[in-house]
Prior knowledge:
alpha+beta, seven-stranded antiparallel sheet, 5 helices, about 35% strand
Amino acid sequence: MSQPEQKRDYPVSDIRHFLEPGPVVLVSSRWEHQTDIMTMGWHMVMEFSPSLVGCIIAPGNHSHDLIRNSGECVINIPEASLVDTVVGIGNCSGSDADKFSQFNLTPGQSVKVRAPLIDECYASFECRLYDDAMVDLYSLFIFEVVKAHVAPSADHQQSLHYQGMGQFMLSGKSIDRKDLFTSGKLN
């Protein structure tokens, strides 16, 4: 075992470089005649059954009002090759642009919600608002995934993980330790 490295002071405002959660996603939404896509990195799986996902969607995002009013969205996972599209979507407002047209993305048909899927993404999760108790205070929407669409190639795709300051990390090699997990009670 190697010796531990000496740690240095680090700006707390930059810790997201190490703690940023799961893959960057594209959230599509629709309310009345408006459709939008937003780039989002702040989300978390909260429960398995029902399948709950918490998402931070700030009021300054055009999607916030669309999702707040409709109570639904689609969380889409883009492959790593879409990194420039992901950044571009995050750098413009849906109140000023039709992001599907501007970024040459195909709106797919959802089954259980009105918001469109993004066909170019390898996974799309149709969501309904499950709990809005923390939206006003923390901009935290808790969604229930009501339908999941996943491409056969999904397990072989690389996802993007934002590290802040314009840097992304790609998902990497998987390590299988299923045999170390036991069924039954968890601590």
